[in-house]
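User: Hey, quick favor. My workstation is busy. Could you predict this chain's structure for me?
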Amino acid sequence: MKHFYSHGKLLLTGEYVVLDGAKALALPTQKGQHMQVVSSERSGINWTSKLHDGSTWFSHHFELDQLRTKNWRSDQKVVETLQHILETALSISNISLTENHGFEITSILEFPRNWGLGSSSTLLNNIAQWLDINPYTLLSQTFGGSGYDIACATAKGPICYQRSLENVRVDPVAFDPPFKETLFFVHLNTKQNSRESIRHYRGLQPEKSSALIESITALTNKLLLVETLNNFEHLLFQHETQLAKVLKLSSVKERLFPDYPGAIKSLGGWGGDFILATGDTSRHDYFKQKGFSTIIPYSEMILH
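Assistant: No problem, here it is.
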């Protein structure tokens, strides 16, 4: 049996603008996704997906013919999506399936599917590791996106991520704020569709804005050096304000938590998943009273 593992992700700075070349600060999470692969004499791929509690949420046997054609036989969205990923990955790789050689694959998430920590990116990266192919190539031919989540999958800690037309740059960074005990993540009880978020951004920002890219990159660089919570909160406010103008959307604090005394920052696509909030543990009750009960301290969420 072969085993593969990829970390989840959160994007602290550069959401949306990372697509156009801004430097982003990305945080790999402690929880991710496992994938176990066992060779089988049965043709095709027998796939099982399990949740963090050990229960099976999806299973399907992909016949050999299914993996050789684009004429999908099922109307199930999950089946179609996974089939597309497997077909694409196998077409890139040097591995070929035969009538007497297939695989039993089990994928196991360590976090709930609706958390938005990268159930898709960790899956893609695990498949890329298994087939020994470039995960960024697989991403570009399936889901698309900036690729920061792929970079987080194998990172050992926080990274700065920046992409250009030619390549991507991934730099490990020593982001370990001395005030991290006052940082925590709150789940907004809804999952944001990354591709819809990108389409919204592209519709409003069809061309690169060099001024915006430079500004977000500068904020990322400043955050790496910040030493006090007050300065950190100020930089988060600046970032949210700039993106709100570009996206023509209200910030999450304006929309949901206008009376919250600390700072609040969207992470990734605006509208769902986790937010970062500042404050001591006594402020957790503020969010719980509003119905947001999934609250995770920074030190328990982020890989460091």
